[in-house]
Write a structure and sequence with these properties.
single chain, 105 residues, alpha+beta, 2 helices
Length: 105
């Protein structure tokens, strides 16, 4: 596994759950002897929606809502076989956290 790395990209609405998951991944990778870069915070995507409160009397009255999607990036350099096994077995994700794993050479 020379010159390989694992890139883990995480997304979630709750930044605290995302940070806890990132720290768990970093601790697991470091315990197995891999070098870790991250977690690196990526820009937060903010989606804003404006909705009419009522179509007739309160036509000019509006409500605004937003959804924030927080992102983190973790690079695991020089992963060992133990690292990959530990990430596959011991990773428990909280609800609302999405993980994408890419193996790059």
């Amino acid at each position: 596994m020379q010159n390989e790395r694992i890139r883990i990209r995480m997304e979630g609405y709750d930044h605290e759950a995302l940070d806890r998951t990132a720290l768990e991944i970093v601790a697991t990778a470091k315990n197995t002897g891999a070098e870790v870069h991250g977690p690196i915070p990526l820009p937060t995507r903010i989606e804003r929606y404006t909705v009419l409160r009522g179509p007739f009397i309160d036509r000019k009255s509006r409500e605004q809502f937003e959804i924030r999607t927080h992102k983190r990036l973790i690079d695991i350099l020089q992963p060992t076989v133990k690292t990959i096994e530990a990430l596959n077995k011991g990773l428990s994700l909280p609800p609302g956290v999405d993980i994408k794993i890419r193996v790059m050479s």
